[in-house]
Fold this sequence. Notes:
It is built from three helices and four strands, in the order E-H-E-E-H-H-E. With 106 residues, it is of the alpha+beta class. The radius of gyration is 14 Å and the shape is globular. It starts with 10 loop residues before the first strand and ends in a 7-residue tail after the last strand. Keywords: Monooxygenase, Oxidoreductase. It comes from Paralimibaculum aggregatum.
Amino acid sequence: xxxxxxxxxxxxxxxxxxxxxxxxxxxxxxxxxxxxxxxxxxxxxxxxxxxxxxxxxxxxxxxxxxxxxxxxxxxxxxxxxxxxxxxxxxxxxxxxxxxxxxxxxx
Length: 106
């Protein structure tokens, strides 16, 4: 389960995908498979979530990692590079961005 806290010493990554309603389900299927088969099994992986807007034109992916280096190692692997090419076939663009939590509200 994701932890959103300033005190947590973890790396948060938010990736947004710009897609179309016709390609949204294909992209979701590829993302689900990537998490189930590869990403969630990588060292340092903590948790992730997928979010879809109501128009089915954007997918947001929220993931957390023990360390920045864990995320970067996964991202640079041959397996992930191959999966990223599949993602690009199903969307116009995507961009993973690393964030630090500066505040949380319960």
